[in-house]
Amino acid sequence: MRALILFALAAAALAAPAMAAAAAATPRDDDGDRYRQCLDLAQSNPAQAVERASEWRANGGGIPAR
User: What is the tally of structural domains in the chain?
Assistant: First the structure.
């Protein structure tokens, strides 16, 4: 029984980083709207679009903010 508990704890410890990475890569609901706004801004004012994308990325924007 003790071995089973240790195995379960080890498996959970190994899986935690992978689960956290998957959660970070999952877009949030507002990411799509924010991404489209950034694309529109890139057409009219590229420098400002880069600035906003950089801020978004620094605040956890993930893949869409790159």
Answer: 1
Tokens, residue 14? 């190994």
For 3-61, the DSSP string reads HHHHHHHHHHHHHHHHHHHHHHHSPPTTHHHHHHHHHHHHHH-HHHHHHHHHHHHHTT-
Its domain, for residue 26, covers 2-65
Count of beta carbons in the 10 Å neighbourhood of residue 41: 17
pLDDT tens string 26-61:
556 678 888 999 999 999 999 999 999 999 999 888
Structure tokens at 2: 């003790």
